[in-house]
Amino acid sequence: MIGNRTLAVPGPTNMPPRIASAMAVPLEDHRAPDMADFILPLLADLKQIFRTQTGTVLVFPGSGTGGWEAALRNTLDAGDRVLGASFGQFSMLWMDMCRQLGLNATTIECNWGDAPTIDAYRRVLEADKSHSIKAVLVCQNETATGVTTDVAAIRRMMDDLGHPAMLFVDGVSSIAAIEFNMDAWGVDIAVAGSQKGFMMPTGLAIVGVSERVMQNVQERTGRIYGRSGGCGYWDFATMAEANSTGYFPYTPAMTLLHGLRESVDMLQEEGLDNVFARHNRLAEGVRRAVHGWGLRPCATDPATVSDTVTAIVVGDRHDANAVIRSAYRNYGVSFGGGLGAVTGKVFRIGHLGWLNETMVLQALGGAELAMRDVGIAFEPGSGVGAAVTYFTEQQATSLMAAE
Fold first, then answer.
1. Which CATH class is domain 17-269?
2. Beta strands 133-139 and 166-170: pairing type?
3. Is the whole-model pTM more than 0.85?
4. Which CATH number is 6-11+271-402's, of 3.90.1150.10, 3.60.21.10, 3.40.50.300, 3.40.250.10?
5. What is the mean pLDDT of the chain?
6. Are 167 and 187 a contacting pair, CB within 8 Å?
7. What is the DSSP string of 179-244?
Protein backbone atom coordinates (compact mmCIF):
# COMPACT_ATOMS: atom_id res chain seq x y z
CA MET A 1 0.00 0.00 0.00
CA ILE A 2 1.02 3.63 -0.45
CA GLY A 3 1.72 5.52 2.77
CA ASN A 4 2.36 4.32 6.28
CA ARG A 5 0.19 1.84 8.11
CA THR A 6 -1.48 3.09 11.27
CA LEU A 7 -0.81 1.02 14.38
CA ALA A 8 -3.67 1.53 16.82
CA VAL A 9 -3.57 -1.68 18.84
CA PRO A 10 -2.92 -1.72 22.60
CA GLY A 11 0.45 -3.37 22.09
CA PRO A 12 2.83 -3.49 20.47
CA THR A 13 2.73 0.27 20.31
CA ASN A 14 4.42 2.75 17.99
CA MET A 15 8.20 2.75 18.37
CA PRO A 16 9.96 6.13 18.34
CA PRO A 17 12.85 6.49 15.89
CA ARG A 18 15.07 7.31 18.86
CA ILE A 19 14.50 3.86 20.29
CA ALA A 20 14.93 2.13 16.94
CA SER A 21 18.22 3.97 16.46
CA ALA A 22 19.38 3.10 19.97
CA MET A 23 18.93 -0.60 19.21
CA ALA A 24 20.76 -0.40 15.88
CA VAL A 25 24.12 -1.19 17.43
CA PRO A 26 26.70 -3.90 16.70
CA LEU A 27 26.37 -6.98 18.86
CA GLU A 28 28.59 -6.77 21.89
CA ASP A 29 30.21 -8.73 24.68
CA HIS A 30 27.65 -8.81 27.48
CA ARG A 31 30.43 -9.73 29.92
CA ALA A 32 32.72 -6.89 28.90
CA PRO A 33 34.59 -5.21 31.78
CA ASP A 34 32.64 -1.96 31.38
CA MET A 35 29.15 -3.47 31.06
CA ALA A 36 28.27 -2.47 34.62
CA ASP A 37 28.66 1.19 33.62
CA PHE A 38 25.64 0.71 31.36
CA ILE A 39 23.50 -1.75 33.34
CA LEU A 40 23.64 -0.30 36.87
CA PRO A 41 22.36 3.19 35.96
CA LEU A 42 19.62 1.65 33.79
CA LEU A 43 18.33 -0.52 36.63
CA ALA A 44 18.47 2.44 39.01
CA ASP A 45 16.46 4.63 36.62
CA LEU A 46 13.88 1.88 36.11
CA LYS A 47 13.13 2.15 39.82
CA GLN A 48 12.08 5.75 39.19
CA ILE A 49 9.60 4.59 36.52
CA PHE A 50 8.09 2.11 38.99
CA ARG A 51 8.33 4.78 41.69
CA THR A 52 10.15 2.66 44.19
CA GLN A 53 13.16 3.53 46.32
CA THR A 54 13.39 0.33 48.36
CA GLY A 55 12.35 -2.22 45.74
CA THR A 56 14.33 -3.93 42.99
CA VAL A 57 13.54 -3.93 39.27
CA LEU A 58 14.54 -7.07 37.39
CA VAL A 59 14.59 -7.39 33.60
CA PHE A 60 14.08 -10.82 32.05
CA PRO A 61 14.11 -11.76 28.36
CA GLY A 62 10.45 -12.61 27.89
CA SER A 63 6.93 -11.21 27.79
CA GLY A 64 4.50 -9.96 30.40
CA THR A 65 3.20 -13.50 30.73
CA GLY A 66 6.68 -14.56 31.76
CA GLY A 67 6.58 -11.83 34.39
CA TRP A 68 3.35 -13.28 35.76
CA GLU A 69 4.96 -16.70 36.06
CA ALA A 70 8.07 -15.26 37.71
CA ALA A 71 5.92 -13.56 40.36
CA LEU A 72 4.11 -16.79 41.20
CA ARG A 73 7.05 -19.19 41.07
CA ASN A 74 9.36 -17.11 43.25
CA THR A 75 6.93 -16.51 46.09
CA LEU A 76 4.40 -19.34 46.28
CA ASP A 77 4.28 -23.12 46.57
CA ALA A 78 1.75 -25.59 45.20
CA GLY A 79 -1.37 -25.52 47.37
CA ASP A 80 -0.93 -21.92 48.51
CA ARG A 81 -4.07 -19.79 48.35
CA VAL A 82 -4.27 -16.74 46.12
CA LEU A 83 -7.10 -14.31 45.45
CA GLY A 84 -7.74 -12.50 42.19
CA ALA A 85 -10.44 -11.37 39.81
CA SER A 86 -11.43 -12.37 36.30
CA PHE A 87 -12.95 -9.49 34.33
CA GLY A 88 -11.30 -9.87 30.94
CA GLN A 89 -8.98 -12.07 28.94
CA PHE A 90 -5.72 -11.22 30.69
CA SER A 91 -6.94 -11.19 34.28
CA MET A 92 -8.60 -14.53 33.50
CA LEU A 93 -5.39 -15.98 32.06
CA TRP A 94 -3.36 -14.97 35.12
CA MET A 95 -5.80 -16.82 37.35
CA ASP A 96 -5.66 -19.79 34.97
CA MET A 97 -1.88 -19.78 35.33
CA CYS A 98 -2.25 -19.93 39.10
CA ARG A 99 -4.26 -23.12 38.79
CA GLN A 100 -1.83 -24.57 36.25
CA LEU A 101 0.97 -24.07 38.77
CA GLY A 102 -0.99 -25.93 41.44
CA LEU A 103 -2.09 -22.91 43.48
CA ASN A 104 -5.43 -22.81 45.26
CA ALA A 105 -6.99 -19.89 43.40
CA THR A 106 -10.11 -18.05 44.55
CA THR A 107 -11.45 -15.99 41.65
CA ILE A 108 -13.86 -13.06 41.84
CA GLU A 109 -15.89 -13.49 38.64
CA CYS A 110 -17.08 -10.28 37.02
CA ASN A 111 -18.98 -9.39 33.90
CA TRP A 112 -16.56 -8.34 31.19
CA GLY A 113 -16.81 -4.57 31.16
CA ASP A 114 -17.21 -4.30 34.92
CA ALA A 115 -14.31 -3.80 37.32
CA PRO A 116 -14.00 -5.96 40.44
CA THR A 117 -15.15 -3.98 43.44
CA ILE A 118 -13.08 -3.35 46.52
CA ASP A 119 -15.90 -4.87 48.56
CA ALA A 120 -15.64 -8.11 46.58
CA TYR A 121 -11.97 -8.39 47.56
CA ARG A 122 -12.79 -7.32 51.11
CA ARG A 123 -15.44 -10.01 51.65
CA VAL A 124 -13.03 -12.80 50.76
CA LEU A 125 -10.17 -11.39 52.82
CA GLU A 126 -12.40 -10.71 55.83
CA ALA A 127 -13.51 -14.33 55.79
CA ASP A 128 -9.89 -15.50 55.71
CA LYS A 129 -9.42 -15.47 59.48
CA SER A 130 -6.39 -17.74 59.35
CA HIS A 131 -4.68 -15.56 56.73
CA SER A 132 -4.26 -18.54 54.45
CA ILE A 133 -4.38 -16.30 51.37
CA LYS A 134 -0.76 -15.60 50.54
CA ALA A 135 -1.17 -13.22 47.59
CA VAL A 136 -3.78 -10.88 46.13
CA LEU A 137 -3.57 -10.47 42.35
CA VAL A 138 -4.78 -7.26 40.73
CA CYS A 139 -4.89 -6.41 37.03
CA GLN A 140 -4.51 -2.64 37.04
CA ASN A 141 -5.55 -2.30 33.40
CA GLU A 142 -7.53 -5.07 31.70
CA THR A 143 -6.46 -4.68 28.08
CA ALA A 144 -9.29 -6.80 26.66
CA THR A 145 -12.09 -4.58 27.93
CA GLY A 146 -10.46 -1.24 28.71
CA VAL A 147 -11.26 -1.45 32.43
CA THR A 148 -9.04 -0.42 35.34
CA THR A 149 -8.83 -1.45 38.99
CA ASP A 150 -7.92 0.92 41.83
CA VAL A 151 -4.73 -0.65 43.18
CA ALA A 152 -4.24 1.95 45.90
CA ALA A 153 -7.75 1.33 47.25
CA ILE A 154 -7.12 -2.42 47.43
CA ARG A 155 -3.94 -1.81 49.41
CA ARG A 156 -5.79 0.51 51.81
CA MET A 157 -8.45 -2.15 52.31
CA MET A 158 -5.86 -4.85 52.97
CA ASP A 159 -4.12 -2.59 55.49
CA ASP A 160 -7.46 -1.80 57.19
CA LEU A 161 -8.03 -5.53 57.62
CA GLY A 162 -4.48 -6.14 58.74
CA HIS A 163 -4.18 -8.90 56.14
CA PRO A 164 -0.55 -9.85 55.47
CA ALA A 165 -1.01 -11.15 51.90
CA MET A 166 1.37 -9.94 49.23
CA LEU A 167 -0.06 -7.58 46.60
CA PHE A 168 0.79 -8.47 42.99
CA VAL A 169 -0.10 -6.12 40.12
CA ASP A 170 -0.33 -6.82 36.41
CA GLY A 171 0.83 -3.47 35.08
CA VAL A 172 1.67 -4.65 31.58
CA SER A 173 -0.56 -2.09 29.86
CA SER A 174 -0.44 0.54 32.60
CA ILE A 175 3.10 1.05 33.92
CA ALA A 176 4.84 3.94 32.12
CA ALA A 177 1.46 5.10 30.78
CA ILE A 178 -0.97 5.66 33.66
CA GLU A 179 -0.30 6.46 37.30
CA PHE A 180 1.50 3.72 39.16
CA ASN A 181 3.28 4.14 42.51
CA MET A 182 4.86 0.96 43.79
CA ASP A 183 6.05 2.18 47.18
CA ALA A 184 3.12 4.45 48.06
CA TRP A 185 0.63 1.75 47.13
CA GLY A 186 2.47 -1.03 48.95
CA VAL A 187 2.81 -3.21 45.85
CA ASP A 188 4.95 -6.29 46.36
CA ILE A 189 5.39 -7.37 42.74
CA ALA A 190 4.56 -5.36 39.63
CA VAL A 191 4.83 -6.80 36.12
CA ALA A 192 5.38 -4.71 32.99
CA GLY A 193 6.28 -5.48 29.38
CA SER A 194 8.51 -3.64 26.95
CA GLN A 195 5.94 -3.39 24.13
CA LYS A 196 3.39 -1.09 25.81
CA GLY A 197 4.16 2.12 27.69
CA PHE A 198 7.89 1.55 27.21
CA MET A 199 7.37 1.98 23.42
CA MET A 200 9.62 -0.93 22.44
CA PRO A 201 9.43 -4.26 20.65
CA THR A 202 8.12 -7.23 22.58
CA GLY A 203 10.84 -9.15 24.40
CA LEU A 204 11.41 -7.88 27.93
CA ALA A 205 9.50 -8.73 31.10
CA ILE A 206 10.20 -5.91 33.53
CA VAL A 207 9.38 -6.89 37.11
CA GLY A 208 9.38 -4.66 40.19
CA VAL A 209 9.93 -6.56 43.44
CA SER A 210 9.47 -5.10 46.91
CA GLU A 211 12.12 -5.29 49.59
CA ARG A 212 10.06 -7.68 51.71
CA VAL A 213 9.55 -10.06 48.79
CA MET A 214 13.27 -10.11 48.00
CA GLN A 215 13.92 -10.97 51.64
CA ASN A 216 11.22 -13.65 51.61
CA VAL A 217 12.63 -15.18 48.44
CA GLN A 218 15.88 -15.84 50.28
CA GLU A 219 14.21 -17.05 53.49
CA ARG A 220 11.76 -19.47 51.86
CA THR A 221 14.55 -21.31 50.03
CA GLY A 222 17.02 -21.10 52.88
CA ARG A 223 19.84 -20.00 50.67
CA ILE A 224 22.17 -17.14 49.95
CA TYR A 225 21.65 -15.48 46.55
CA GLY A 226 22.33 -17.79 43.66
CA ARG A 227 23.34 -20.90 45.59
CA SER A 228 20.90 -23.82 45.49
CA GLY A 229 17.20 -24.24 44.82
CA GLY A 230 15.42 -21.34 43.16
CA CYS A 231 13.20 -21.01 40.13
CA GLY A 232 15.61 -21.55 37.30
CA TYR A 233 15.19 -19.07 34.46
CA TRP A 234 12.86 -16.81 36.46
CA ASP A 235 14.78 -16.90 39.74
CA PHE A 236 14.66 -13.48 41.41
CA ALA A 237 17.58 -14.08 43.73
CA THR A 238 19.94 -15.30 41.03
CA MET A 239 19.02 -12.39 38.78
CA ALA A 240 19.37 -9.84 41.58
CA GLU A 241 22.77 -11.18 42.60
CA ALA A 242 24.12 -10.90 39.08
CA ASN A 243 22.50 -7.50 38.56
CA SER A 244 24.13 -6.16 41.71
CA THR A 245 27.46 -6.34 39.88
CA GLY A 246 26.04 -4.96 36.62
CA TYR A 247 25.70 -8.31 34.84
CA PHE A 248 23.15 -11.06 34.16
CA PRO A 249 23.15 -14.76 35.06
CA TYR A 250 22.60 -15.69 31.41
CA THR A 251 22.79 -13.94 28.05
CA PRO A 252 20.69 -10.77 28.16
CA ALA A 253 18.86 -9.20 25.22
CA MET A 254 21.42 -6.41 24.86
CA THR A 255 19.89 -4.72 21.81
CA LEU A 256 16.58 -4.47 23.68
CA LEU A 257 18.34 -3.15 26.76
CA HIS A 258 19.79 -0.33 24.66
CA GLY A 259 16.24 0.42 23.54
CA LEU A 260 15.08 0.33 27.14
CA ARG A 261 17.78 2.83 28.08
CA GLU A 262 16.44 5.23 25.44
CA SER A 263 12.85 4.57 26.52
CA VAL A 264 13.57 5.43 30.13
CA ASP A 265 15.40 8.57 29.02
CA MET A 266 12.38 9.66 26.99
CA LEU A 267 9.98 9.02 29.88
CA GLN A 268 12.18 10.98 32.26
CA GLU A 269 12.56 13.86 29.81
CA GLU A 270 8.79 14.18 29.43
CA GLY A 271 8.23 13.63 33.15
CA LEU A 272 6.02 10.82 34.40
CA ASP A 273 3.22 13.11 35.55
CA ASN A 274 3.17 14.65 32.07
CA VAL A 275 3.14 11.17 30.54
CA PHE A 276 0.10 10.28 32.62
CA ALA A 277 -1.67 13.54 31.77
CA ARG A 278 -1.01 13.04 28.06
CA HIS A 279 -2.47 9.55 28.13
CA ASN A 280 -5.55 10.80 29.95
CA ARG A 281 -6.02 13.59 27.42
CA LEU A 282 -5.67 11.30 24.40
CA ALA A 283 -7.96 8.70 25.94
CA GLU A 284 -10.64 11.27 26.64
CA GLY A 285 -10.50 12.34 23.00
CA VAL A 286 -11.19 8.75 21.96
CA ARG A 287 -14.04 8.49 24.46
CA ARG A 288 -15.58 11.71 23.10
CA ALA A 289 -15.38 10.19 19.62
CA VAL A 290 -17.11 6.99 20.71
CA HIS A 291 -19.92 9.02 22.24
CA GLY A 292 -20.11 11.11 19.06
CA TRP A 293 -20.67 7.95 17.03
CA GLY A 294 -23.54 6.95 19.30
CA LEU A 295 -21.62 3.91 20.50
CA ARG A 296 -20.34 3.01 23.97
CA PRO A 297 -17.16 1.65 25.50
CA CYS A 298 -17.12 -1.87 26.90
CA ALA A 299 -16.22 -0.37 30.29
CA THR A 300 -19.55 0.14 32.04
CA ASP A 301 -18.43 2.62 34.69
CA PRO A 302 -16.88 5.96 33.64
CA ALA A 303 -14.80 5.83 36.83
CA THR A 304 -12.98 2.68 35.67
CA VAL A 305 -12.33 3.48 32.00
CA SER A 306 -8.78 2.92 30.79
CA ASP A 307 -6.46 5.66 29.61
CA THR A 308 -4.47 3.23 27.46
CA VAL A 309 -7.11 1.33 25.47
CA THR A 310 -10.78 1.73 24.60
CA ALA A 311 -12.86 -1.31 23.66
CA ILE A 312 -15.79 -0.14 21.54
CA VAL A 313 -19.05 -2.12 21.47
CA VAL A 314 -20.53 -2.21 17.96
CA GLY A 315 -23.95 -3.60 18.91
CA ASP A 316 -25.67 -6.93 18.28
CA ARG A 317 -26.42 -6.26 14.60
CA HIS A 318 -22.78 -5.85 13.63
CA ASP A 319 -19.56 -7.84 13.72
CA ALA A 320 -16.62 -5.97 15.20
CA ASN A 321 -14.24 -8.23 13.30
CA ALA A 322 -15.67 -6.86 10.04
CA VAL A 323 -14.65 -3.37 11.18
CA ILE A 324 -11.15 -4.61 11.94
CA ARG A 325 -10.81 -6.36 8.57
CA SER A 326 -12.04 -3.34 6.63
CA ALA A 327 -9.76 -0.96 8.52
CA TYR A 328 -6.73 -3.15 7.86
CA ARG A 329 -7.38 -4.21 4.26
CA ASN A 330 -8.88 -1.01 2.91
CA TYR A 331 -7.14 1.71 4.89
CA GLY A 332 -4.01 0.25 6.46
CA VAL A 333 -5.18 0.72 10.04
CA SER A 334 -4.68 -1.97 12.70
CA PHE A 335 -7.19 -2.15 15.56
CA GLY A 336 -7.25 -4.69 18.38
CA GLY A 337 -9.82 -7.45 18.18
CA GLY A 338 -12.19 -8.62 20.86
CA LEU A 339 -10.86 -11.50 22.95
CA GLY A 340 -12.65 -14.29 24.74
CA ALA A 341 -16.15 -13.34 25.81
CA VAL A 342 -16.14 -10.15 23.72
CA THR A 343 -14.89 -11.66 20.46
CA GLY A 344 -16.76 -10.06 17.57
CA LYS A 345 -18.48 -7.65 19.93
CA VAL A 346 -15.79 -4.99 20.30
CA PHE A 347 -12.88 -3.52 18.45
CA ARG A 348 -10.12 -1.91 20.47
CA ILE A 349 -8.26 1.32 19.88
CA GLY A 350 -4.95 1.46 21.68
CA HIS A 351 -3.89 4.95 22.76
CA LEU A 352 -0.67 4.51 24.67
CA GLY A 353 3.03 4.94 24.24
CA TRP A 354 4.58 7.25 21.64
CA LEU A 355 1.39 9.00 20.59
CA ASN A 356 -0.05 12.46 20.06
CA GLU A 357 -3.36 14.04 19.09
CA THR A 358 -2.92 13.84 15.33
CA MET A 359 -1.98 10.16 15.53
CA VAL A 360 -5.16 9.52 17.52
CA LEU A 361 -7.20 11.41 14.92
CA GLN A 362 -5.68 9.24 12.22
CA ALA A 363 -6.92 6.12 14.02
CA LEU A 364 -10.36 7.64 14.60
CA GLY A 365 -10.61 8.56 10.92
CA GLY A 366 -9.74 5.00 9.99
CA ALA A 367 -12.44 3.74 12.34
CA GLU A 368 -15.02 5.99 10.69
CA LEU A 369 -14.08 4.75 7.23
CA ALA A 370 -14.28 1.11 8.29
CA MET A 371 -17.54 1.51 10.19
CA ARG A 372 -19.11 3.14 7.13
CA ASP A 373 -17.94 0.20 5.03
CA VAL A 374 -19.71 -2.33 7.24
CA GLY A 375 -22.93 -0.36 7.64
CA ILE A 376 -22.70 0.98 11.17
CA ALA A 377 -24.95 4.04 11.30
CA PHE A 378 -23.38 7.30 12.50
CA GLU A 379 -22.86 10.81 11.18
CA PRO A 380 -19.53 10.90 9.30
CA GLY A 381 -17.08 13.13 11.12
CA SER A 382 -19.04 13.05 14.35
CA GLY A 383 -16.39 11.13 16.25
CA VAL A 384 -13.39 12.83 14.72
CA GLY A 385 -15.09 16.19 15.20
CA ALA A 386 -15.81 15.52 18.86
CA ALA A 387 -12.16 14.60 19.42
CA VAL A 388 -10.95 17.68 17.53
CA THR A 389 -13.20 19.91 19.63
CA TYR A 390 -11.91 18.37 22.85
CA PHE A 391 -8.24 18.47 21.86
CA THR A 392 -8.38 22.11 20.74
CA GLU A 393 -10.21 23.13 23.90
CA GLN A 394 -7.53 21.41 25.95
CA GLN A 395 -4.80 23.14 23.95
CA ALA A 396 -6.44 26.53 24.49
CA THR A 397 -6.72 25.88 28.22
CA SER A 398 -3.07 24.83 28.35
CA LEU A 399 -1.94 27.97 26.55
CA MET A 400 -3.95 30.20 28.88
CA ALA A 401 -2.47 28.48 31.92
CA ALA A 402 1.05 29.04 30.55
CA GLU A 403 0.55 32.81 30.09
1. alpha beta
2. parallel
3. yes
4. 3.90.1150.10
5. 95
6. yes
7. ---TTTTT-SEEEEETTTTT-S-S-EEEEEE-HHHHHHHHHHHT--TTSS-S-GGG-HHHHHHHHT
